[in-house]
Design brief:
A 5-stranded parallel beta sheet has the order 1-2-3-4-5. The chain is globular. The chain has 189 residues and is largely without helices or strands. The longest helix has 10 residues. The protein contains 1 helix and 5 strands; from the N terminus they run E-E-E-E-H-E. The chain has a single domain, classed as Leucine-rich repeat, LRR (right-handed beta-alpha superhelix) (Alpha-Beta Horseshoe). The protein starts with 90 loop residues before the first strand and ends with a strand.
C-alpha cells in the first residue's frame, strides 16, 4: 500500500469499509500529499503486520482530526514524518500506540502548527535512534504527555522542541532533565 493515494490532492474522502489490510507490511506514504482530505475513517484497518508508517499522513493539510485508536502498531519500526505538516490537526490521541519496536520518530509531528494537545502517554522510546525535529513547529501545543520517553539509545534529538513555546510537558525525570537543560521556553513537570 506504499504511496497508494500519494499526491491525490483533490481527494476529499475515502471509503475503506471493504479494504482487507491484514497482510500489509508497508503503509508508508499512503495518504502523502492528500491535502484536501477532510476526514478519514480507518477503523476497519488491520495494521498488526505493518512495519512502516512513515510519511503516512504527511501534508494532509485539511485533516482536523484523526482517530487511530484501532491501529495495532506493535510491529511498526518507522514512524518518521508520519503527521508532518498536518497543520489543521487540532488534537491527536495516540495513547493506544505500541512503540516498543520503533527506531525512527524524526519529524513525526513537525509543522503541526494547530495541534494544541497530544497524548503520547503510551509511547516507549527505548529503541528510538532518531527523534530530531519531532515536535518542531508545533507552535500551538499547550500540553504534552511524555511519561515513558527515553533518549538512552537516541543518536539525534536536535531541535526536538524547536518553535514550541509555553507548553506544559509532563515527562519522566530522565527526559525532563534533558528538556530543562536544552529548552527554557516550556514548563516541565
Amino acid at each position: 500500500m506504499y504511496g497508494m493515494f500519494m499526491d491525490c490532492s483533490s481527494l476529499t474522502s475515502l471509503n475503506f469499509s471493504s479494504f482487507n489490510t491484514q497482510n500489509v507490511q508497508d503503509m508508508s506514504g499512503m495518504f502523502q500529499g492528500c491535502s484536501s482530505l477532510t476526514s478519514l475513517n480507518l477503523s476497519s484497518f488491520n495494521t498488526q503486520n505493518v512495519q512502516s508508517m512513515n510519511h503516512m499522513f504527511i501534508r494532509c493539510k485539511s485533516l482536523t482530526s484523526l482517530n487511530l485508536s484501532s491501529f495495532d502498531t506493535q510491529n511498526v519500526k518507522y514512524m518518521n514524518n508520519m503527521f508532518e505538516e498536518c497543520n489543521s490537526l487540532i488534537s491527536l490521541n495516540l495513547s493506544s500506540f505500541d512503540t516498543q519496536k520503533v527506531k525512527f520518530m524524526y519529524n513525526m509531528f513537525q509543522g503541526c502548527s494547530s495541534l494544541t494537545s497530544l497524548n503520547l502517554s503510551s509511547f516507549n522510546t527505548q529503541k528510538v535512534e532518531k527523534m530530531n525535529n519531532m515536535f518542531s513547529g508545533c507552535s500551538s501545543l499547550t500540553s504534552l504527555n511524555l511519561p515513558n520517553f527515553s533518549i538512552n539509545n537516541t543518536t539525534n534529538f536536535s531541535n526536538i522542541f524547536l518553535g514550541v513555546r509555553n507548553c506544559n510537558i509532563k515527562a519522566n525525570a530522565n527526559f525532563a532533565n534533558y528538556i530543562s537543560l536544552t529548552d527554557g521556553n516550556n514548563y516541565i513537570n
